[in-house]
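Incident log, support desk, overnight shift.

02:14 A customer reports that sequence design results differ from what the structure should imply. Their input is reproduced verbatim below. On-call engineer (initials T.W.) acknowledged and began investigating.
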């Protein structure tokens, strides 16, 4: 079985408060984009995990794909599989690639072993693996609250928008990004702001990670600044960084100076 776990971008990201458990209350809109890892699962006598493409640091057993398998194995009667992950979505990029991979392992195991688990159960399992994982079970635009795992549908008219995704080859850990933020209660929520015309998004729809991440990594700030000089409708850092995206009303070529940073071009 071959699956294509997508990346995501964030439209607005508000960090509202820090909880007693150490997590932060947030509100954001996550949107899947057609930029993928490649995940292959085959039945096997013994479990194995192989990863190619972009290298992922960490010891054996620490990859979220492996954790997803062992979580399912601990709860349900499933056999062993061989997992091959071709990694194309950078890590520490604010694109949710690892979370997407883990969620798609759950989806694949559910199908391979005919477990017939519904979406709600799969989302609960995914939440045990990471805050962004449940989003990739549903794999459609969602408003995310709590630490990111409380999802609700959101009506967005993004059809026809053209996107360009850039990455400065900088790794920003989620822990690093959160360490520099100051939670705040905004005048309007992300969902309220997204209901406004896209023309006002650049002024009102913010990613609260940007100030602190830009101070630590000026190259990311420079990427955003250069994209804002183009005809983009909206430019933002995705998640906790380091990727930046621009949305346009029509297909657009980025300046030559930015071409080496382009990860993907896509239509929504």
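02:41 Re-run completed on a clean worker. Output:
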């Amino acid at each position: 079985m071959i699956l294509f776990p997508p990346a995501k971008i964030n439209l607005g990201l508000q960090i509202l408060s820090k909880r007693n458990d150490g997590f932060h209350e947030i509100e954001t809109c996550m949107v899947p984009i057609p930029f993928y890892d490649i995940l292959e699962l085959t039945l096997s006598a013994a479990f194995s995990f192989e990863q190619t493409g972009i290298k992922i640091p960490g010891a054996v057993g620490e990859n979220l794909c492996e954790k997803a398998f062992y979580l399912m194995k601990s709860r349900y009667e499933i056999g062993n599989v061989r997992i091959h992950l071709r990694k194309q979505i950078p890590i520490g990029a604010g694109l949710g690639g690892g979370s997407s991979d883990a969620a798609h392992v759950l989806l694949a195991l559910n199908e391979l072993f005919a477990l017939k688990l519904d979406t709600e159960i799969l989302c609960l399992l995914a939440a045990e693996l990471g805050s962004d994982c449940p989003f990739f079970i549903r794999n459609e635009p969602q408003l995310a609250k709590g630490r990111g795992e409380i999802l609700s549908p959101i009506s967005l008219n993004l059809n026809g928008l053209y996107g360009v995704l850039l990455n400065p080859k900088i790794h920003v850990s989620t822990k690093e990004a959160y360490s520099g933020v100051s939670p705040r209660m905004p005048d309007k929520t992300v969902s309220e702001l997204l209901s406004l015309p896209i023309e006002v998004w650049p002024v009102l729809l913010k990613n609260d990670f940007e100030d602190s991440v830009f101070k630590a990594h000026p190259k990311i700030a420079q990427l955003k600044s250069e994209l804002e000089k183009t005809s983009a409708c909206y430019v933002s850092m995705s998640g906790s960084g380091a990727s930046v995206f621009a949305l346009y009303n029509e297909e657009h070529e980025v300046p030559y100076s930015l071409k080496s940073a382009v990860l993907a071009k896509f239509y929504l």
